Amino acid sequence: MNPIYDIIIIGGGPIGIACGLEAKKAGLSYLILEKGCLVNSLYNYPANMTFFSTSERIEIGGIPFVSNNVKPTRSEALEYYRRVAVSNRLLIHLQEKVLKIVPVEEGAGKHFDVISSAGSYGAGHVILATGFYDLPVLLDIPGEELPKVTHYYKEPHFYAMQKVAVVGASNSAVDAALETWRKGAEVTMVIRGEGIGQRVKYWVKPDIENRIKEGSIAAYMHSSLLAIREKEIDIQTPEGLKTLPNDYVIALTGYQPGFDFLRQAGVRLSDDPTLEPQYDRDSMESNVKHLYLAGVVCGGMNTHSWFIENSRVHAIQIVEHIMKNRY
């Protein structure tokens, strides 16, 4: 029979690591399972990304995060979270995807069988800290499956001297548009709303708006991408259909949690478009007893409601609740 851990934490991002730190501090047995690399979502952020938050606001476990500037970069965050995990000797299995969570009733007790790509584990409690960055919101248009289309942006050199369409007006879309343009790409932005998003970093927003105003970057507002072909795209604009030559499409239309996985685990989702999972705000316990939610997964489609800085406290709430009800 597999050993039963006090806690299995699904997700090895900053909040999953924070949960591991709290579990270890409380003397609970735990295991973190991560389907990719350590802090996989941060690893997939754009290479030159700078955080909106200051370094002390994304610290975890009370461990100081010292960065070269007030706002840390992606590379500094990767180094910080790696050092936190390694120096605290956290028990983490990387590149191991969790496939299913099965509740098991045995006499008066209850635990979960957590089935992964490498085996199965028992757990008295499970924490889902799975984030939302792994499943892009699709456009559902013809040609979206073409190799020239990506829903993730890493770095700009690849797009030099190419005709690039960037779909979206968020921080990631603005970074992609500016960086690829500065590397010599011919950039067109396709924006559903009236302009650049209000959440775009305040030191970047004037830059992109000025590039659009001067005509360096073309932008179609109140518009949507209708179709993608090998060498061109169709854009529906207020003035009618536009067909433009195109080499690559960077569709940064947002991401979503793994709702199917949540449902499989028994977590109830709201009936409205947010699909917010059901959980107690004080303990972070979901409608499934002993199954907890932590981090941005708590917001459902409201992916801008939770960040590292305001959800790192979830780790403390959860472990305190487990310890309080353990005996």
**DSSP strand count:** 17
Uncertain regions spanning at least 5 consecutive residues: none
> Given the C-alpha coordinates, what overall shape results?
elongated
According to CATH, the homologous superfamily of the largest domain is FAD/NAD(P)-binding domain
Strand/helix succession:
EHEHHEEEEEEEHEHEEEEEEHEHH
What structural class should be given to the helix and strand makeup? alpha/beta
Helix tally equals 8
Beta-strand fraction estimate: 25-35%
What is the percent of helical residues? Answer: 10-25%
CATH architecture of the largest domain: 3-Layer(bba) Sandwich
CATH topology-level name of the largest domain? FAD/NAD(P)-binding domain
Overall mean pLDDT stands at 94
What Rg, in angstroms, do the CA atoms define? 22 Å
Number of domains as seen in the coordinates? 2
Cα end-to-end separation: 24 Å
Sheet of most strands = 7 strands, mixed
